[in-house]
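Researcher: Next entry in the queue.
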Amino acid sequence: MSASPKLHLKSVLVRRSFFWATLVLFLGSAIGHWTSGWVSYVHEQEDHNQPAEFSEYVPEALRDTFENWEAEFMSVLWQLGGLAILYAAGSPQSREGDERKEKKLDLILKAVDPDNADKAIEKLDQEYART
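Model: Structure for this entry, 131 residues:
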């Protein structure tokens, strides 16, 4: 029996909470960077009696953004994102131990309480979203 969409969504949000927190921090810092850069750009243009045009600001902001990413963010992103994607989120090495343990525990539960084991396992699967 499959879990309800609401439980599945909650499971995805909880299991990927580090990703969501990182995404919020990234978007917040990117918005802050571009906003403060725009304000600085407008003041600079005013000092030179030039109009502030967004189309001229974008290349400058992109250059600044990529310089920051190249120097610091990309290495951290790869360390965290690469680890999460390649190891923790799905590689066989990261999951084989837990899956084997869960199957062993399921067998033990079925041996100890064969009449109620399937209901108990289903309840646990729904509650803790077995992947």
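Model: The CA atoms of residues 69 and 75 lie 8 Å apart.
Researcher: Noted, moving on.
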